[in-house]
Design a protein that fits this description.
Elements (H helix, E strand, L loop, with lengths): L3 H7 L2 H7 L20 E4 L22 H7 L2 H17 L2 E5 L22 H16 L4 E7 L12 E3 L2 H8 L1 H8 L5 E4 L3 E2 L2 E2 L4 H11 L5 E3 L10 H5 L14 H8 L5 H17 L19 H14 L1 E5 L12 E5 L24 H9 L4 E5 L16 E2 L8 E6 L8 E7 L3 E4 L13 E8 L5 E9 L3 E5 L2 E5 L19 E7 L5 E8 L7 E9 L5 H10 L3 E7 L20 H11 L3 E6 L14 E4 L7 H9 L13 E2 L17 E3 L8 H7 L3 E3 L10 E3 L3 E2 L3 E2 L5 E9 L5 E10 L12 E10 L4 E8 L5 E4 L5 H8 L14 E4 L2 E8 L7 E7 L4
Parallel strand pairs: 1-2, 2-3, 3-5, 4-6, 4-27, 5-8, 10-11, 10-23, 23-24, 24-25, 31-39
Antiparallel strand pairs: 6-7, 9-25, 12-16, 13-14, 13-16, 15-22, 16-21, 17-20, 17-22, 18-19, 18-21, 26-28, 29-32, 30-32, 32-35, 33-34, 33-38, 36-37, 38-39
Helix pairs in contact: 1-11, 2-10, 2-11, 3-12, 4-5, 4-12, 5-7, 12-16, 13-16, 14-15
Amino acid sequence: MADVDALVDELTLDEKAALTAGLDTWSTNAIPRLGIPTVYLTDGPNGARGPALGTAGPPSVCVPCGSALGATWDPALIREVGALLGREARRTRARVLLAPTLNLHRSPLAGRNFECYSEDPLLAGTLGAAFVRGAQSQGVATTVKHLVGNDAEFERHGISSVIDERALRELYLRPFELAIRDGGALGVMTSYNRLNGTYTTEQPALLSDIVREEWGFTGFVLTDWFGYVGTTVSPAAGVDLEMPGPARAFGPAIAAAVRAGELDERVVDEQVRRLLTVFDRIGALGDPVDGDRTIPTDDRPEDRELARRAAASSMVLLTNDGTLPLDRSTLATVAVIGPNALAARIMGGGSATVHAHHETPPVDALRARLGPDVRVVAEVGCRNDKMLPLLGGPITAAPSTGAPGWDVEVIAHPHLEGEVVDTFTLPEGDWLTFEPPSPHVDAGSWSVRARTWVTPPESGTFELGLAQISPARLLVGGEAVIDGIAERPARGDAFFGMGSVEARATMDLAGGEPVEVVVEYAAGERAAVGAWRVGWRASDPPGLMERAVAAAGAADVAVVVVGTTGEWESEGHDRTTMDLPGDQDELVRRVVAANPRTVVVVNTGAPVTMDWVTEAAAVLQSWFGGQEMADALADVLLGDAEPGGRLPTTLPERLEHNPSYGNFPGENGETRYGEGVFMGYRWYDARHLPTRFPFGHGLSYTSFELGEPTLSSPVFRPGGELTVAVPVTNTGDRPGSEVVQCYVAPPQPTRLVRPPKELAAFAKLWLEPGETATVRLALDVGAFAYWDPGQDDRAEVDAKLAGLPVQAGRRRGRRGWHVEVGAHRLLIGHSSADLPHAVDLQVMTPD
């Protein structure tokens, strides 16, 4: 262990200031004379990508998305996944993993719901703490994100999340608290948004008083990438590291502020001390100062097995009339239908995107599993793309190698007129950078030209698309088919909301004849960020849906895979509807009408409407299941694996029923959390609203019976712990998993309005047929506590009313956590709506 205090004493002011800001997009500054190395950071929640953006980096393991991991309700499994991503981070030479995402599912439409675990703070925080423990066991620091109120993407850099004190404490801060207190998280990432009018990076009451003093956090606080910070107020508030580099408000600006007497140098000392202490705890201060960052590819069978197990454990069986699991012996023909059946939709968009080791469409996995004796007919039925599929894969050839991909030339001039000073390759026509693309060019003085040869397999009409940030054009066979230099396209959602809409063109091409495709990109005035994307697809023949319906009608069973993509569910923008994109709802209805033995797989990261749910033989929520999703799906459909998931979020019948409706995403610079503490199932319970499927719901291929719960004591006193023992029996003929859920209902009436019940404990267990085991659920004071904000101006109001013949105000509570004395009820069962057991409990005052 290093003597961090001695290191801080030896650092000059300029060196200390340099450590408070990143060197570049993915690394911190080194101080070679003192042996302090550069420390590398990497996204993210569903894979450790290394020093790249999107799919441009080396391959890495892609695990299921956050909502899928939330659906496992399995802290032990999530700890394994965290350890896997910790190892992956180390493989990329990174010591800081930018995960997990602990914001809550406030609205079904939030763009990053797929990245977050749950609508419930206990479930999200418990799983987040498990992920943290797993990842940090590998010598990396996690950064729980995004603190706090970053529950929408609308105007995310300036929106103010207006959250009342009770909701903030009881809901939105709770997952972060659990990840820090129970998980030991070493890093916290602040959010882009303002909280009640002030940026979170400027709030000492949040970062210092709550996070550090109250929760005992001893790690470092860093900004989200390009998030707002102030040179003097943010260090004093508790922010330690500005990312990415080069520095803007921190670094040299901090040194200048100290010299000007605007910032106490002791504040900078504390920033640096916290950073170096974490780096020391994870062993990073022992890394070489000039370490090699060559990243090996490490595609291990055991990692694939874990990702596959996690995907199966996340899948939620919503309905089933007995069709699932499929019996191979009864199948001669299977129709596999839908846009997400013929394409791998394994992750959401934005900073969570990784270059997965492989992407397998569900139809390929099912065809391989069913074998040659079962005829598998594949039909797309309709399209659900927001943008055209990326141009890449075997129809492309990079001119330099002939291998699939693109060659990219870096030009030392902002308008494509200088010499080529560097080259690199891309696997697909998708590129994004936040810094100059070569060390041989400066910001504002570069452009790129990308080339590939495309060989269409058949003659026909093809659609091409181009999205961009700065001026760009797309040339095919030397002809500019889309010219976004001469005429800039309108702003769209691409590239975190910084890019254009996708401009499209069509052209006829001959099959088997290579044609050169070129992108010319002039960085121009947006040289700090560079991005372009090329889409490509053969034009659809007529009758896509009719062919799918006919195939379904002729099959023994139809499997329809519908959903969204990483373009619909992405960082940078929210969805505008819960409906499936395109004609997918109509496709489901028509296929079900043609074949009553239709299984619908919903491949999304967040809720969709599903008005047809009662018409299908079975409905399975597969989420964005990571690189092993297709094989895990085949495992579940054919009964080789249990659909082990339970819903981590309520699936509403209608968008208008969800608690944030009318307040989401925001207006006039604010998003009002008007539902207060009544978020998620708390809202549906309190309003007696129907749901499509309730929080915690999920069926099994077997059946379970919960015995009568017993309490370790009929009385609970704050400061103690209560154990609820619940016997569970697998009453079916297959092994399977059950999640036992315990909710606490407060005494009635309560002094402050409270939800009818709240999740207090849960446990997942696996049982063989006929096996019985007892789960023990531990409840502490947090299961019964609520936050009382009090009334700060009560004395002033009383003084103004003194002497008037008016009714006196009711008693006010003092600010803080409180436990209501009286009879509480513990509700125990299979979901928030299926709770067969109730046990009364008396909560007493402390001894």
